[in-house]
Amino acid sequence: xxxxxxxxxxxxxxxxxxxxxxxxxxxxxxxxxxxxxxxxxxxxxxxxxxxxxxxxxxxxxxxxxxxxxxxxxxxxxxxxxxxxxxxxxxxxxxxxxxxxxxxxxxxxxxxxxxxxxxxxxxxxxxxxxxxxxxxxxxxxxxxxxxxxxxxxxxxxxxxxxxxxxxxxx
Length: 169
Hints:
Elements: E1 3-8, H1 10-18, E2 23-28, E3 41-46, E4 59-72, H2 73-80, H3 89-99, E5 112-123, H4 132-135, E6 148-151, H5 154-168
Parallel strand pairs: 1-3
Antiparallel strand pairs: 1-6, 2-5, 3-4, 4-5
């Protein structure tokens, strides 16, 4: 099984957690193609610990890859709506622009968004998040990682899956 740990926007995560969503769009504002396999485990890692801007983030949940495509931002909103983990179309546009390098100097119709559709989404309860760097032997995370990391070490994958089961209980 592929295990892919992705940096997660905290507002996006809080929306899916608060709304108990089981299928979501893990959107990528740059609109670049990615490699993925149907069924791969995608884990959500926060930018940083809440209240500690200098620390690495915690793994707060995950889901399983169902599909990936790139579409113009308007089509993404029209087809997925709140599965983008944003309340309104304007809010979605603003969130995408916040992460793009040109900060809104583009024609809205030309902005393309990468859409990794996840199903079987789960969120850990607060206080049950996984601090992988402390809990998982040989799990490493460089502060220079911007989007995510595929875990290739089998023992690390196995330990992560055991931790997920424990933290969901």
